[in-house]
Specification:
Blueprint: E1 2-6, E2 11-14, E3 17-21, E4 24-25, E5 32-39, E6 46-52, H1 62-68, E7 79-83, H2 92-107
Parallel strand pairs: 1-7
Antiparallel strand pairs: 1-4, 2-3, 2-5, 5-6
């Protein structure tokens, strides 16, 4: 898989694992949905859910023939191009206003996301002391080996 960005030089993560600086290439073993995050200073951070579908030679039972009996090597290459958008400028007044809102909500025990079109939570988050933290376990697709 090759990930390219315009402009180049963005930091690329695939499934929360640092891959490198664009343009960057990496191997992948599993098909399915992968989370790709592209970050660069002064540009909006983009998080994309990209579905990788297996090629015909990776679908069971054809995969047995293509992996064990096929005389040559088959390669599945994906090239992903992303256009990064500039980060909008925030005036000092807007920044102060957002900071005051966050500060007042923190004092009241409430958290209001500052993301546009997000819904505010009704109160502080609660967690059970007996609930273990969620592990970051990679998910395998149906076509994994």
């Amino acid at each position: 898989m090759t990930i390219r960005t315009t402009p180049p030089g963005a930091t690329v993560y695939v499934d929360d694992q640092l891959i490198g600086t664009s343009p960057v290439s990496t191997d992948f073993t599993y098909y399915g949905v992968r989370t790709i995050k592209v970050m660069k200073d002064r540009f909006r951070t983009e998080t994309i859910q990209h579905r990788f579908s297996p090629p015909w030679y990776q679908v069971p039972p054809v995969d047995f023939v293509s992996e064990n009996l096929w005389p040559g090597k088959l390669r599945d290459e994906h090239v992903l191009d992303y256009q990064l958008l500039p980060q909008p400028n925030v005036t000092n007044e807007q920044l102060r206003e957002r900071a005051e809102t966050l500060r007042s909500n923190a004092r009241n025990g409430h958290f209001t996301p500052l993301v546009p079109n997000a819904t505010a939570s009704s109160g502080p988050a609660t967690t059970s002391a007996n609930t273990p933290p969620q592990a970051n376990i990679p998910r395998r697709s149906t076509y994994s080996r």
